[in-house]
Specification:
Length: 318
């Protein structure tokens, strides 16, 4: 089977819905549901890829605590190889608290912790043996490998003929520091999957999608796929193609993990030989389906379920 390697963020999400506001002082707000899930742009993408039938392994760092054990066991049960998921006892496992609003949006309260322990020593060339697709997830919140260490690893992958995909999450501490984390990687990226908010922020394009696309293509990215929530996805490439694909019309419960589901769906289609537009259509269905539940593992993606969803659900107007 084609092998995929995901590298980057591994964390636990604690999600609660629906959060109208944070109570003052010692106040309490009763919620409908609280869940603990495996999350992160490397971890959740890997789990979804395994459910979609891909042979996938992952590289990251977790702590020697209950959350680290939870992440490792859940990923293993899903079929992900975790032999390169390193345990660091010096720090607690990275985690995020997500108060989910009624419209499915949510702020994120995040601690970097063990994701900051992922270092250049973890990115050795032996990991790339037999790999067809390398997915780097979480650039911007991976201080140990952001910038040149990641770029060097991607450069090695490209020399081996590996397809490189990437998603980033800017820290927003400063535009300069976020760009220094992301920009060195871009010349080696075949498919970039940023959200519209993140894409426009890094490109300093306001809400100008075309300006943002030009920024990434000029930086060396071959294909830019900007996910735009209810507005679907934008696909642009170095051949001046600019395609918009409408989103599926669903009742959104939570948008957590939709981007990771999109990434997994696209990669799973790509390794089966799908053309970019067809892969993006399948990926959109994966992301939209994930939005119908709470958390990055709200829906166990499998091809039959995704294809049934595509047949049963209409598209939103562009």
């Amino acid at each position: 089977m084609t092998r995929v390697l995901t590298v980057g963020m591994h964390l636990a999400d604690v999600l609660g819905r629906h959060v109208e506001s944070i109570p003052d002082g010692q106040g309490i707000q009763l919620l409908d549901e609280i869940r603990l899930t495996v999350a992160g742009t490397a971890a959740a993408t890997a789990v979804n890829l395994a459910h979609l039938g891909a042979d996938v392994s992952t590289v990251g760092v977790v702590g020697s605590d209950a959350l680290g054990s939870f992440i490792t066991s859940q990923m293993g049960e899903a079929g992900v190889s975790t032999m390169n998921l390193r345990i660091d006892p010096s720090s607690p496992t990275s985690a995020t608290i997500l108060p989910i609003r009624r419209d499915g949006s949510r702020p994120a309260l995040h601690v970097v912790s063990t994701n900051g322990k992922l270092g250049e020593q973890d990115l050795h060339a032996d990991l790339l043996e037999g790999i067809s697709v390398l997915h780097l997830g979480g650039t911007g919140l991976l201080p140990g490998i952001d910038g040149e260490p990641s770029a060097n690893f991607l450069r090695t992958a490209k020399k081996l003929g590996i397809v490189v995909t990437m998603d980033f999450i800017p820290s927003r501490s400063s535009l300069a520091s976020d760009r220094s984390a992301i920009e060195p990687c871009l010349p080696y990226v075949d498919y970039l999957f940023p959200s519209d908010d993140d894409a426009y922020y890094i490109a300093s394009s306001g809400n100008d999608r075309r300006q943002a696309i030009d920024y990434y293509l000029n930086a060396g990215v071959k294909n830019v796929l900007i996910t735009m929530g209810p507005d679907g996805v934008s696909i642009s490439d170095t051949n001046n193609r600019d395609i918009r694909i409408p989103a599926f019309d669903v009742d959104v419960i939570d948008t957590t993990g939709c981007g990771d589901a999109f990434s997994a769906g696209f990669i799973a289609s790509l390794i089966e030989g799908a053309e970019t537009r067809d892969a993006a259509n399948f990926a959109l269905a994966c992301g939209s389906l994930m939005a119908t539940g709470l958390g990055s593992d709200a829906v166990v993606l499998d091809r039959n379920r995704v294809n049934e969803f595509r047949m049963a659900n209409a598209r939103r107007p562009l």
